[in-house]
Amino acid sequence: MAATPDTSISPLDVVRVLRSAGPALFTQAGLHGDLIRVEWAAEKERIVRLVAAAFIALVAVLCVLLTVGALVLAFSWDTPYRAAVAAGLVIVYAAIAAIAWQRFKVHTSRGGEAFAATREELAEDMAVIRSHL
């Protein structure tokens, strides 16, 4: 059986690396802080725009749907198709709600892209630190 190499990290080695790389680590931490602030501002702006667009769309769609529904029912009220028209309106409204829900899911799935640059930079820094230990 072949012996596996020891990959454990010695606390003394960590102290040596940190002592020699201390100023660089603080500089890098500051850069990461700046990057996080920039990405947070972009994410906050995206969320505000998403909420504003969703609210405006909701109000507009509700107004249109209520007006069209009332108009269609008014035109079909004295016909034998009154119940069919009402059922058709419910189906159309449900389809519109399903489409809106799908679009909402698309926009919320983009939230995973938030702070991607920060995560990438941190992973690269951790790899550099590990390579020096």
Features:
rod-shaped, mainly alpha, 133 residues
Can you describe what's shown?
- This protein is mainly α and 133 residues long.
- The chain has one domain (23-132).
- It has helices spanning 11-76, 82-109, 116-132.
- The chain is rod-shaped, with a radius of gyration of 29 Å.
- 0% of the residues are buried.
Percent in strands: under 5%
C-alpha geometry: rod-shaped
Query: What gap, in angstroms, lies between the N and C termini?
Result: 27 Å
Q: Could you tell me the radius of gyration in angstroms?
A: 29 Å
Q: What order do the SSEs take from the amino end to the carboxyl end, as H and E?
A: HHH
| Major β-sheet profile | none
Task: Specify the helix fraction band.
Answer: over 70%
The count of DSSP E runs of length 2 or more, i.e. the number of strands, is 0
What's the quick description here?
With about 130 residues, this protein is mostly helical. Helix content is about 85%, strand content about 0%. It has three helices and no strands.
